[in-house]
Every structure is written in C-alpha cells, then in structure tokens.
Request: fold
Amino acid sequence: MTGKGFLEKIKGVWVPVLVVIAWEAVVRWGWVNPQVLPAPSAVLIRWYQYLLPMEPYDPATSSRLSWIFSGELVRDLFESFYRVMLGCLIGGGLALPLGLLMGASRTIYDYMNPLIQVLRPIPPIAYIPLAILWFGLGNPPAVFLISLGAFFPVLMNTIVGVRAVDSIYIRAAKNMGAGPVLMFRKVIVPAAMPYILSGVRIGIGTGFICMIVAEMIAVNNGLGYRILEAREYFWSDKIIAGMFSIGLLGLAIDTVVSYLNNYLLRWHRGLDS
Reply:
C-alpha cells in the first residue's frame, strides 16, 4: 500500500485525534476545571483502572481467565450487552412477524394500526414507573424497556418494506405459479429485507438509550449504573470513561450488524453494482 493510500484509509481518524489533542491542551493550560472536565489522559488512566480486576490474582481460588474477566468494566460491559441483546431480540422477534402480517394484509393493518399509532409516540422511558411496578427491580424491567425501544423501529420499517415490494416481482411470481407461502418466503421477505435490517439497526440504537436509562434507575450494575454511581461521587473522569465504553460497545455491535447486513444483502449489492 502506498503512503497516499494509507493516508486515505485513516482520514477518518484525524478529526478525533485533533479533538483529543485540543481537549488535553485546554485542560493542561488551566482553561477549564479538571474536576469538571478531566483531561483525556486522566480519563484513560481511570478507564484502565476501571478495566483491571478488583482483587489480586490467586490461583487457589480462580483461573487466570476468570480473574482477567473479573474487572468492574468487563462485568458491566457483559451485563449491559446481555440486557440490550436480550431486549432487542424480544422486541425485534415480536415486531418482525407482526410487521410482515400488517404489511402483507390490509385487513390486519386496518385492525392493528390504530393501536400501534397510539402506543408508538409514547417514549419507552415513560413506562419506567409501570415497569418497576410490574417487574420490580433488576433485569426484567430493563429488558422490558429495551424491548419497547426496539419494537417500533423494527415494526414500522418492516411494514414499509413489505408495502414497498415492487408489484412486478409479485406478478411475475404469480405467473410462474407461486403460492402464498412461497410468495411470502421467496419474494416479499427478501425484497423487504433492506428495510427490515435498517429497522434492526435503528432499534438497537434506541435499545441502547433505553438500556442506559433503565440501568440508572432499576438495576445495580451495568454501564448506566456505573455512570450514575460516579456522578454521586463526582468522579467526572469515570463518567467519561463509562460514556466512551458505551460508545465502544455500541460501535462493536453496530459493526457486527453491518457485516450481517452486507452478508444478507449481498445479492442486493450485486444488483446495485
């Protein structure tokens, strides 16, 4: 790879690097209170401390692998990842078949749409009192809120995707003798897949927001809880370290979903090219 090609590949790194350098300089020069806005170097040190195991390694009580993954940050990442994935799977798993049915059947759409349009504008955060009343504290109310956050983006995108299927495809399949089940499985679902996967990505993003809010209120672990705990002690460096951890977790999940998107739509990419 030539030098120019390498610079082209990393061009997206320059802006974050410049922002971090400016941020460090502003704090070092005393223009802001480091207690309010700590320097990136202080945040990095705190993030490293947050990552380290809390107890010294003792081979008599644990394996080295379990000791490495016993750090506070690792456990919080795992708890947050578990909640957001479980909630998105439940919300998306319920929204997908309902969206396919509402998109394909005008009758089902007419019956369900009024209820959906009443519930859809209500923010999932508004359900927090009910979620705690119904499920108590812990994972159940958090997963419930995340499921709500993921449900409506997947549902609405699926309905739009099914309704956007080109009628030429449907007529061609009918002329070749395709029945309703084959039509649905081989024509409608694949044609609507770009919309469905876009809804999944949006749903995961909304689920992340609900996860952080739920962890700040209903549970005693996870990244959202840890940020709230740091606020109580005015650990601004740990707050920012937790925020960046959320961003990195979201980036990792979105990257996996993006690769899955490209794999499932490889036929679509081929037609576009």
Remarks:
- The mean pLDDT is 81.
